Structures are given as structure tokens and as C-alpha cells.
Amino acid sequence: MSEPSATHRHAASTDEDWRITSHEDATLACARIVSNMEALLQLIEAESSLLRAGKTIAASAIEQRKSEYARAHMDDLEFLRQVGPELEYWAPNAVERLRSAHAEFMSVLQINMAALATAQVAQESAERSTAAGLEHYVPPAPSLARRMALRAPGRSLFRRLAKAV
Question: What domain of life is recorded for the organism (predicted)?
């Protein structure tokens, strides 16, 4: 099994494509999955930090890469369902590290998802407050000169009166 990139998707068409046949294959597969989880987690943490700072546009720029890594992670989970026993057989220590990394991944993911949800609620609340404030907006009263001009029948009348005096 050759070493795939971090975002490699396991688009296997036959069971033979999923096979792990050596300790090296199993170790590389586990390392690649851990690497992908770490990359996904870094993107999620970066997005959370940006959202907490109110930088929603910058956070949305991360979305595409995060989606790619999330899809790769889902593919990794399917891969693990297919070859889990083989991984256990060939590299039990690597599988144990993978389990530990996954447990850490899940706990950090829960914390960041809660932070994202909180940031989203705060943003929606701010948007509602702004919208509600605009509904009740009362423009400032016009200045005295402006009020006098609005009441005057026409400027030409004032000019004629000024010339007459």
C-alpha cells in the first residue's frame, strides 16, 4: 500500500483495494488517518478562533478546505470499518494510538462545535438587535434653519422681502 496524501479518499471498488497485508501498510494507514484528523482539527480550531473574534468572512474562507478534510475523514471511517480487524492484526500499537487520537479529536471537536454554536447564536442575536434598532430608528430633528426653510412658502418670497427692505 503506497502512502496517500492527507486528503486521499478511499474510493475502493473492490474488497482487495481495502486490504492491509503488512505491518508497514497498517502503520502507514493509521498514521495517515491520524494526520488527517489533526489537519481537520487545526482547521476547525482556526475557524472557531476567527468566529470568536467576529471575523466571519475570514472564517468562511476556511470552509472549503475544512469540507475536504471532513470528507476525507468520513472516507477514513469507512476504510476503518472495512479493514479494522486487519489493522488490529498487523499493527495493534498503531491502532491504539489511532484510538487515543480519535478520542482526543472527538473531545476537542465537541468543544469547538459548542464554541461555533455559541458564536453563531451571538451573531444572529447581534443581527436581530441591529435589525430591530433600524425598525425603530428616528432620524434626528432638522436644524432650526432647515425647519424655517421647510415652513417658508418659497425662497423667492424671502429674496423679494429682503430686497424690499
Answer: Bacteria
Predicted model pTM: 0.64
Rounded to an integer, what distance in angstroms lies between the CA atom of residue 10 and that of residue 158? Answer: 85
Do residues 69 and 7 lie in contact, with contact meaning Cβ atoms separated by under 8 Å?
yes
CA 29 to chain centroid, in Å, comes to 27
For the chain, the domain total comes to 1
Using a 10 angstrom Cβ sphere, with 0-12 exposed, 13-18 middle and 19 or more buried, the burial of residue 138 is: exposed
89-147 per-position pLDDT tens digit: 999 999 999 999 999 999 988 888 887 788 778 778 877 777 776 666 666 666 655 55
Residue 8 lies in a domain: no
Report the alpha-carbon distance of residue 20 to residue 144 in Å, rounded: 86
Cα(50)–Cα(56) distance, integer angstroms: 7
Residue 7 lies in a domain: no
Contact 52, 33 (CB under 8 A): no
**Nearest-CA neighbor of 98 among 107, 88, 108?**
88
151 is a domain residue: yes
> What is d(CA 54, CA 47) in angstroms, rounded to the nearest whole number?
11
